[in-house]
Every structure is written in C-alpha cells, then in structure tokens.
Design goal:
The complex is a heterotrimer of chains A (175), B (713) and C (330). With 713 residues, chain B is α+β, with helices and mostly antiparallel strands. Chain B is built from 15 helices and 26 strands. In chain B, a hairpin with an 8-residue loop joins β9 and β10. In chain B, α8 runs parallel beside α15. Among the domains of chain C are: 46 residues, Uridine Diphospho-n-acetylenolpyruvylglucosamine Reductase, domain 2 (2-Layer Sandwich), CATH 3.30.43; 101 residues, CO dehydrogenase flavoprotein, C-terminal domain (Enolase-like, domain 1, 2-Layer Sandwich), CATH 3.30.390.50. Helix content of chain C is 29%, strand content 20%. In chain C, strands 4-5-8-6-7 form a 5-stranded antiparallel beta sheet. Chain C has a 4-stranded antiparallel beta sheet with strand order 9-10-11-12, with helices on both faces. Classes of the chains: A alpha+beta (175), B alpha+beta (713), C alpha+beta (330). Chain B: It comes from Streptomyces daqingensis.
C-alpha cells in the first residue's frame, strides 16, 4: 500500500510515492538518495539517523514517512550552506576531531543542533537542577560539559570520539 | 577498470629515515568535510540504478539440518524477484571454507546461520517476504557452553596470527611452591561483539556478460581489506582475481570485524549472480551482526604468579580457555603477551579450545592482548597487594631487559618511563589503601595497568606515484580508512616522502583498481602502507627526478626491514584510571583516565590522540559494560541490539586523556612509527578494574563490572 | 512488516470508531515503540490510525491545582513544562531519565504508558514468549533474566514494565482518561497496568479500540518533596535495573506520609504500600528507610539472574529518601 507525499528536505520540496512501510530514514536514503542520515541500528538505539523534523531532533528510523506529508526535514547535509560553507557545528567537529569513522557524525551534528535549540528554549535534562526561571518563564540552560554529555547520550559513537564531540559543541554553545 | 601489473620490486636495503615536515603535524582530516555533512559514500550509499534488496533467512536452530523450506508465499509476494535456498542457490567453485560455503548444504552449525535470502524490489518487500518462508528442521542437540573442565578441550596447532599454542620455560610448579608471595586466580571475560556503527554492508554487481564476454564482479563494500575481499571471493566464484573489483573508500568502523570477509559477502554475490547486471544490496541488521560478523571469544584464564620478597617474579603461568566454532577454527592468542611483558625465569602459557555450536570467533580490537591483559594485569595488581608493594613499582621491578621469548634486544621499550610519567601526571601519590577513600556517597579509587601491542606489519603492499597535470602527485594504494585517519596520514607521509607540499598529494585508497595493500589490522596499516609509499616516492625521484612530466609513474613494494629480525618491536603504554563507585547502588563512574604510550613516531597527533583515546574508551567499555549473553537453550545472543548490548554513551565518558613519549623507534622502518590502533584497549580494562578494587575493596574477576557485582548487601 | 493502510484521524471519536471496527487496527502516535515492533514482527497491524493531529497535545491546569496532560504531549515538552517542573519534580525527573533527547521529542504521554516490555525474548519472534504468543512458553524464566521481575510475576511471564514516567505517575496517583465507543472512562493508573497472571499478553486493562486521551495528575500536598532515582548499567540512555519514585512529607525529623513506587521490579509500576505503611510516622533515618524497603521486598521472588535487584532496590530507596528528607530545598 502506497501513499503520495511531499517532504521538504534540506529546503527542497521532494514529492514521492512511498510504501506505507517506508520509514522516514529509508525514504531519505533509498527513495530520495539523501544518504546523510545513517542507519546504525534501525531501532532508535544509536542516534545515527537523527534529523531535524520541523526543527526538532528525532530518530528518523522510528517514524513512517507517510506520517510526515508536508514536513520540513533537515539533515546534516542541509545544515551546510548551499555554497558549501560548513555550519559552525560542522567546522567545530572538524577542528576538534569530533569523529573517527564518521558514520555517527551526521546524526551527532543534527542532534547537537537540535539540542542547542532545546537548551536555548529552557528545556531541562537529567543534569539540570530542578526549578525554573523567575515567574515560571523558562530560561536558557547554560551548557556545561555534564549537560552536553547527558543531552548527547542518545548518539552512540563506537570510535569513542565523545570527548572531542563535547569540546566541539561547547565551542559553538559558548558563542 | 581493473589494472593488472606484475609485482614491482621491493627495496632490499633499509630505507633512510623520513625527514618529517608534514609528518608530526596535525592537519584536520581530509575526509572530514564529507563526513560532517554526511556526503562521504559508505558501502550502501553509492548511487546505483535498479537495485534489488537482499534480506537474509537465518536458521532458528543452533545445530541440525534444514529439511524443507516452503518459499511459495514469499515468491508470490509483491516485489519479490527470487528466493534463494540451499537447494537453488548457485554452486560455489570452492566450498572448503565452511564459514563461507553459504547455502551450499542443508547443514546448520550455529543459530542465525544463513539458510536463504529474499531478493526484492524494496527493502520492505524483501523483509516481509522473508517472514513468509516456513522452514522445517531436523534438530540436533547443540552445545554452546564454555567451561574450563570440558573433557573435549584441545590444544590448537597454532594461535592467531601464527604462534605456538603453548610455551614452557623452567619449572613453574617448583617456583610457585618456593615463592614468597603467590597469586592463583581465575579470570573470565564474556563473548563480545565489535559493533562498528556502520553495519556490515555489501553491494554486489555481477556482470554476466561484460565487454570481453567473461563474467566480472564489482563489490561496494565496507572492509578493512579490499584486496582480502577480492582474493577470498574470486576463487569461490571461479573468477580470476582481476575480474573482481572491490570499492570501499569509507568504512564506518570495523575494529577487526571487517578485516576478513564474512558469509554476507558470499550471500550478496550469490544474490547478484541471480540478477546479473543489477546491484544486489545487502546490509546486515544490527541484530544479525551478532551472529554473522565474528565475535571476541569468551575466555576463562587462570593466572598464577609467584614472587620473591623483593617483588621479582619467579613464576608466571597464564593458561587460557576459549571457544571456537565447529565449522572453522579461530584460536585467539589470549596468553601470548604474558610471554614477553615481564621477566620471569619460570613461565608457562597455554591455550585450549572448545569447538562449540557457535559462529566463528574472529578479530576484535587487540584480539588476545585485550582480554589477556585484563587477567594478567589484574593479577599483577593482586600480587602487588599481596606483597605490600606499589603496583607501579612492581611493574618497574619486573621490566625485562631483553625480550624474554628469545633474548632479542628491544627496539624501543620505554614502559618504565610510561609508568613513571603517567604516575606523576595522574597524581598516583593520592592513591590510598583499598576502600579507604569516600567522597559523599561515592567510593573513590585509582588503578594502573601496563599495555603492549606487537609490532606487526609484513610485506605485501604496493604503492604507485604518478605526476599529475596540475603539478601534483597521485599516490595510489588500496589502503582502508575506517576512522583511522588513513586519508590524512598517508597524505602527510607521501608529502614528506616526495618532499612536496601536503596539498600537492592526491591520495587514492579503498579500491582494488589501485595497487595492492595489506589489511588495516594488527595496528600495522599506516606503518606498512606508509613505508611502502616512502619506498615508491624514493624510487619515483630516482627514476624521474625532481620535476618530471605529467604521467611519469613508478610503483614499489614495501621495503625490507632487517631490523625486525634483530630487534623485538612492540608498542608499550601505561594506563591509569580513577573509579567512583556509588556506595548504595554499585554504579561505577570513571571520571579520569590517562594513557601514556610509547609507540614510536606519531604521524598526526590530532588523529593519533583520538585513536588512543578511542581504544581506552573501548577498554573502559569492556571493563564496565560489554557482554554478549549467549542463551544456551536457544544458542543465540539474546541481547543482540544497542539497547541491551551496552557500549558507553557520551554521559559515560568523562576526562580521558592520552599522551605519548616523543621520538621515532629507530628500528621500526623509515617512519619510525608503530601501531596505535589497538594498544589503547590493552590494559585499560585492568586499570579500571584495579581502580574499582582500590575504591571498594571488592575484587571483580569476571567482566563486565556491572553494579550488581559491587552492591554491599 | 506487513503492508498496512494509513489514515489520519480528525477527531477522537472517529479514531476510536476506526480502530474498533478492525481487529487488525492500531493507533499510531510517536511511533517509537510501535514502529520498532512492526519491524521486529512483534506487532503486525494492517491499519494505522494516526492520532497526532488530534487536539490532545496540551497540558492544562485543573481547578484543584492538578494537571491534565494530553495523550499526545511529547515527553520532552512535558518534562520541560514549567508547572510540571515546579510542582511535580518526580514526573519531570522520571521523563528525563528515560530514553534520549530524540526519542523524548517523539514519544507521547499515552505511548509512554503503553510501551511494552523490553524483554529480549519478547522482542525476538524466533523465541517462545507468552506475552507475544500466548501459550508458547517463557524463554526468560530459564534464560537471561537479569532485567526481569522479582515482584508480582507469574509462571507465564516475568517481564518488567520499562517506563520511567509511569512509575512517577504511580506515586502521583494519576488517573488515565480513556475514550471508548461508550464514551469516556477514568482508570486510576494503579489499575491501568496489569500483573501478568494467566494472561501476560495484556499489559493494561485497555480494550481494543479504546484511546487514551489524557492523564490527570492531582496536586501534591504542600510541603511534599518528590524525586526519581534510576539505577542502570550505564550513565544514561538505558533501561532501569531498578528505579524509585517517591513523594515525601516530613514533620521535623519524622516522616508524615510517603508515597513510593518501584520501577524495574515488576510487570507494572510497583506501588510499595507496605513500605509506605512502615514509614508512616517513622523517624527519617537510613535504618528506617531500609526496614521499610525490606517490608516491601519480603514478597520478592528472584530469578537466578536478578537476585541483586532486591538489595539494589532497598539501597536505592534509602538513598532517595535520604536525599528527599535531608537536603536543603533547592
């Protein structure tokens, strides 16, 4: 059983017909040739397939493409400028050697981008003290190493680049 | 295009050392921009038209025979192109390697073995159709339980890579009986899986009728050894090696599991033969990786140490029990490093195997050394405790002047300096008696262990240099980059060897259309490939001078290094860990680790540091998390995914630092470099476990150290 | 995965009617558990009714100071909600202890409650499992049961419920509102999840086609401190070995009232009523906390692989209560 839909992938409207069973990840990789999100586990246990869906980070392997007609999807490829200039997070990953094999990297970078926005919006993590801002208005959460480590724990890296990843994100978060 | 050329000459004189200019600096990874945007093509991601998707069928029993497979419903399902079974699969020209004799018989030798495959127009259709195949088995009782008292344990002919199974010097029993202090303990490590982030993937295209009428095969692969895949697949499919092209420019991690071809390579090619001209795409699922891509054998290790009152070893015995498969032997060298790490006049090492109904074990980062050093280096900690001696000092006192195996001088063994440097930098002085330091709810302790990794790296690689029309140089060698920095560091080496700017080198790797290269394994890749490039560059200059015309080209093999016969070459290191154990819950955190390594010349400090640290983290993971749980009732690994087989998250990795002693190893070839890819995982598990002991007074001898083992009831 | 039809529901009533009408239909919200199960073959619906477009994505304050949490509120949004953070720290903490940032962005309130066990055998269709395939047997009892139940299990099933959020809701005495073909009914969360008994295939008391629309959480009495502590094999992104949710009122150095629930010990969030009883009026000491835990855990029946959960649960409860009764208010 197939469905027709349009996804706005990295700023481009892409219309396609998918088998309802096709995950967002497989739609991107196998139908649209957008292979920046990676398939590491296919069960939401590694984070390699992380994309920004409507601006929020999600694992694209655990959601069906058919449920996202009209959605904005941003991959790590789309975070870079059209002229090839890298996103600050991407440049920081390069500078801090925030990867080795590179397979988890696009997911790490999308996750970091989503995470920075969450912290800016005042979303807490397990590492955040209880309580909220004056008058109950959420205020941005300062991101120390412990915060970044906890918030990035949904992105596994088997090469063990975590320390450098945290350094890279801190360099951007501090700006 | 596949190039065939005769093997070029190898320089037989040792090469002059390289004059390092780019080498020793830290350019960012050349493959980095493509990787941070996700555009570097991994095996699955090459744009190929009209693919078929392959979903394997796997045995649901651990031993027996497939009697019948009902494939009608699958064949009738929408989008299905073919269903392969042992009955209809193409015959291989050579099925002598039973691990690779995929679908060549009805026999089942382990649970999860391939018994078929569905080929379909979409991955969803293939997977669904696979669920529609009914299989009837003749079930035989299976046996997957390793123990040290099995009557069928046997001594292998040799252990990996090619060493004797047992050694015996002096009289261990007498020395133990006479020793001032004795440790006699048994240590165990579980089955573990490499779990690179990129699942093993093979995309095969069978060119049934290529231009010259002969069949040919193209494989887009994720491999540590493109030529190994070619050499393995060609005879199975009755192809001349040059008819097989393997393309693998980027590899999403391997850690040994992509070092040798596995059954999925054969299955992908069988599928491709069924649909000539169409790419057959096979990516194993994470779950399938737990039975089809090798594993680290579980080990049971008895270590006995005897020492005199001065803390000098008088006896060292390390006896290892491991598993292998019934269809193929892999004998891991668990006790091998105990033959050279410390001085002792009396010494025994042995390896015994049980052939079980399990998948074939294989390489996993530092096979042998990693689990062996866990047992040996925890035993040393126990001996230090028994002697009332500082664990650093105990290791220093037993540092051998020459290689205990054969008396050869060390090329560059600076373990004592690593230990002393590390102790100073880590603040080892702050170490207390076991169980004596508590900060809030956390018990705090420090641990140390020594590391070593052999200086592997044999001949076999060939490099080609060609002047390009832009004034630069193409440098070609079928090396692999699995996160090791190969793209970058070989470019650095080539720039220095050619005495040209870094940017003027155009490296080409990861393709059997390029000259042959040895495996990215044994921590030998960069040293072997790099010295081959140095040889080729020197020969290129000798033949063509300083400013040759575009198209000038030279090939050379890896140079001889006679020093490897005269000296014992290995990397060394000392690792320190701080462990914090929650007094109520037994949770363990490792806030600090430090590794100090002696590994010859470091080509690129930026990528080297990452690789050392990555190894240390994998060792910490081995200490605390990793365990493949084999259900002996079903014969399969139950926790076969990332939710249940734990590796560290970013929240588990705190302050981990690696540093090294400067300077080339003068006997390790023109680069003076040695292996760095594996030594990080050797010793780090013991350092963590020793730190946990120092924190709690609880000595854990079976990995992993999960919270339940540290609960105080 | 079986082919399936997909439809988006416009209103809750028609969503319920659509699923009621077909035994092979299921609701789809965040999908983080259902899509997983469909890939594994654990679930095989032939119609998915997507409820993410329904107006169930609000957190509303109730007149008594409690909260009504819509069924499709995402876990991350709920954890970040100012009223939840201020009034119900145990709920925010439990949510944030679960899964990962990406998963919490997708997972919903109802989906979290309805998530199914992570038992490795349940998730592997090549092994027997009474929960997945009634009557096929339980592979965990004689197999790998490190993560399994020590309380309330049966000979048919020893699985545990994986949710952190549900453990917090259990101490908060939350009520689940459910829409069926006969209208709405209210189910206290303590009655929502089942013990396995003879029918482990049913995790909850929901009937086919019933739709969770909201979870109502009454306010905690003033002066109550609440918190969540989770022990797992690694520091983050892992299911609990043991977890504890607690809400405690103290009177000087005595416990006036404590509400306690354990996660990771049973087929449902385990309300520790015996421990609560033991603590009522007790002095707030480590010894009393441990005795209270033991009063509860006396009924525990460990399997060969999970006996450690009993002391771990005791110690974890004691550690959390110590924190809640001694620490300065933040």
């Amino acid at each position: 059983m197939d469905s027709q839909l349009t996804l706005h992938v990295d700023g481009e409207p892409r219309s396609l017909t998918v088998d309802n069973r096709t995950t967002l990840l497989d739609a991107l990789r196998d139908r649209l040739g957008v292979t920046s999100p990676k398939k590491g586990c296919d069960h939401g246990q590694c984070g390699s397939c992380t994309v920004l869906l409507g601006g929020r980070r999600v694992v694209s392997c655990l959601t069906f493409a058919v449920a996202h007609d009209g959605a904005e999807v941003t991959t790590a490829e789309g975070l870079a400028e059209a002229d090839g200039r890298l996103h600050p997070l991407q440049q920081a990953f390069l500078d801090h050697d925030g990867f080795q094999c590179g397979y988890c990297t696009p997911g790490q970078i999308c996750s970091a981008a989503g995470m920075l926005a969450e912290a800016e919006a005042g979303h807490p993590s397990s590492a955040t003290a209880d309580g909220d801002g004056p008058g109950g208005v959420p205020r941005p959460v300062p991101l120390d190493e412990e915060e970044i480590r906890e918030r990035m724990s949904g992105n596994l890296c088997r090469c063990g680049a975590y320390g450098n990843i945290v350094d890279a994100i801190r360099a951007v978060a501090g700006r | 295009m596949t190039r065939t050329e005769e093997e070029p000459a190898r320089p037989t004189e040792p090469l002059e050392p390289l004059n390092p200019r780019a080498v020793g600096t830290s350019p960012v990874r050349l493959d980095g921009p493509a990787k941070v945007t996700g555009t570097a093509p991994y095996a699955w991601e090459h744009a190929l038209r009209d693919p078929v998707y392959v979903h394997p069928l796997q045995s649901a029993i651990a031993r027996g025979r497939v009697l019948r497979m009902e494939t009608g419903r699958a064949e009738a399902a929408e989008g299905v192109a073919a269903v392969l079974t042992p009955r209809n699969a193409p015959r291989l020209a050579d099925s002598s390697d039973r691990a690779l004799a995929v679908l060549q018989s009805d026999d089942v030798a382990f649970r999860g073995q391939f018994i078929g495959a569905v080929l379909a127009a979409s991955p969803e259709a293939a997977r669904h159709a696979a669920s529609l195949v009914d299989v009837e088995y003749e079930v035989e009782p299976h046996d997957t339980r390793l123990s040290s008292d099995r009557p069928d344990l046997y001594r292998p002919e040799a252990i990996n890579p090619a060493d004797e199974a047992d050694t015996e010097e002096g009289d261990v029993e007498a020395a133990l009986a006479a020793a001032h202090a004795v440790v006699d303990e048994t240590y165990s490590t579980p089955m573990e899986h490499n779990n690179p982030m990129e699942p093993h993937t093979c995309v095969a295209v069978w060119h049934g009728a290529s231009d010259d009428g002969e069949p040919a095969l193209t494989v887009y692969d994720s491999t540590q050894w493109p030529y190994g895949v070619r050499m393995t697949l060609a005879p199975l499919f009755a192809l001349a090696p040059e008819r097989v092209r393997v393309i693998s420019p980027h590899v999403g991690g391997g850690f040994g599991s992509k070092g040798l071809p596995h059954a999925h390579h054969v299955l992908a090619v069988l599928a491709a033969r069924t649909v000539p001209g169409r790419p057959a795409k096979l990516a194993l699922t994470r779950q399938q990786m737990f039975c089809l891509t090798g594993h680290r054998t579980p080990t049971i290790q008895r270590v006995r140490l005897g020492a005199d009152s001065g803390g000098r070893l008088t006896a060292l015995s390390h006896e290892a029990v491991e598993q292998t498969a019934t269809i193929k032997e892999f004998a891991e060298q668990t006790a091998a490093q105990s033959r050279m790490m410390y001085a002792s006049p009396n010494r025994r090492t042995s390896h015994r195997l049980a052939a079980l109904d399990v998948p074939v074990p294989s390489w996993m980062r530092a096979p042998g050394e990693a689990p062996g050093a866990f047992a040996a280096e925890v035993a040393m900690d126990e001996l230090a405790h028994a002697l009332g001696l500082d664990p650093v000092e105990l290791r220093v006192r037993n540092d051998p002047e020459t290689d205990p195996r054969d008396g050869r001088p060390w090329s560059d063994r600076r373990l004592v300096e690593c230990l002393r440097t590390g102790a100073r930098r880590f603040g080892w002085d702050a170490r207390t008696e076991a169980g004596a330091r508590r900060e809030g709810d956390w018990l705090v302790g420090l641990g140390v262990a020594a590391s070593t990794y052999p200086g592997f790296g044999g001949p076999g690689s060939v490099a080609e240099i060609e002047r390009t029309s832009d004034g630069g140089h193409a440098v070609r060698i079928a090396a692999a980059d699995l996160g090791t920095g190969t793209w970058t560091v070989l470019t650095q080496i080539a720039a220095d060897a050619l005495e040209c700017p870094f940017d003027a080198v155009h490296l080409e790797i990861g393709d059997t259309a390029l000259p042959t290269a040895t495996v990215a394994g044994g921590s030998a890749g960069v040293t072997a490939w790099g010295s081959t490039i140095v040889a080729a560059a020197r020969e290129f200059r000798a033949q063509h001078g300083e400013d040759p015309a575009p198209g000038a080209r030279t090939r050379s093999g890896m140079p001889e290094n006679p020093d490897l016969r005269r000296y014992s070459v290995a990397s060394f290191g000392a690792q320190f860990a701080e462990a914090r154990v929650h007094a109520d819950t037994g949770e363990v955190r490792v806030p600090r680790m430090l590794g100090v390594f002696s590994a010859g010349r470091i080509i690129n400090p930026r990528t080297a540091r990452s690789q050392f640290i990555g190894g240390m983290i994998m060792g910490m993971s081995m200490a605390l998390f990793e365990e493949s749980v084999l259900d002996h009732g079903t014969g399969h690994v139950v926790n076969h995914d990332f939710a249940q087989y734990h590796i560290p998250t970013s929240a588990d990795v705190l302050d981990i630092e690696a540093t090294w002693l400067d300077g080339p190893d003068p006997h390790a070839g023109p680069l003076g470099s040695k292996g760095i890819g594996e030594i990080g995982i050797v010793g780090s598990p013991a350092a963590v476990v020793n730190a946990v002991y120092n924190a709690t007074g609880i000595r854990v001898r079976d990995l992993p150290v999960t919270p339940d083992k540290l609960l105080r009831y | 995965m079986k082919p399936f039809d997909y439809s988006r529901a416009d209103d809750a009533g028609s969503a319920v009617a659509a699923v009621m009408a077909r035994p092979d239909a299921a609701f789809l919200a965040g999908g983080t558990n259902l899509v997983d199960h469909m890939k594994l073959g654990v679930a095989a619906p032939e119609l998915l009714v997507d409820v993410t477009g329904l107006p169930l994505d609000r957190v509303e304050e109730l007149p008594d100071g409690g909260l009504r949490i819509g069924a499709t509120v995402r876990n991350s949004d709920l954890a970040a909600h100012p009223l939840v953070r201020r009034r119900l720290p145990v709920l925010s903490q439990a949510l944030l202890a679960g899964a990962s940032g990406q998963l919490r962005n997708a997972a919903t309130t109802a989906g979290n409650l309805l998530q199914r066990t992570r038992c490795g055998y349940f998730q592997d269709v090549t092994t027997p499992c009474n929960k997945r395939e009634p009557g096929s047997g339980c592979a965990a009892i004689g197999g790998w049961n490190r993560y399994h139940a020590v309380l309330g299990a049966s000979e048919h099933c020893v699985a545990v419920h994986p949710s952190d959020m549900a453990v917090a809701l259990r101490v908060l005495d939350a009520v689940v509102t459910v829409l069926g073909e006969d209208g709405e009914r209210r189910v206290p969360v303590g009655e929502f999840h089942r013990l396995p008994g003879e029918a482990p295939e049913a995790d909850t008391v929901l009937r086919h086609g019933e739709l969770v629309t909201a979870v109502e959480v009454p306010p905690l009495p003033a002066g109550t401190r609440s918190g969540y502590r989770k022990v797992r094999d690694r520091a983050s992104y892992a299911f609990a070995l043991v977890s504890v949710a607690a809400a405690v009122e103290t009177d000087g150095d005595r416990v006036r009232e404590a509400r306690i629930a354990f996660g990771g010990l049973a087929h449902k969030p385990w309300r520790a009523e015996r421990a609560e009883e033991a603590l009522r009026g007790a002095s707030a000491t480590d010894e009393a906390f441990r005795e209270a835990a033991e009063a509860e855990l006396r009924a525990a029946r460990p399997l060969p692989g999970n006996g450690f959960k009993i002391p771990m649960a005791r110690n974890t409860l004691a550690a959390l209560l110590r924190e809640l009764t001694t620490e300065e208010r933040r």
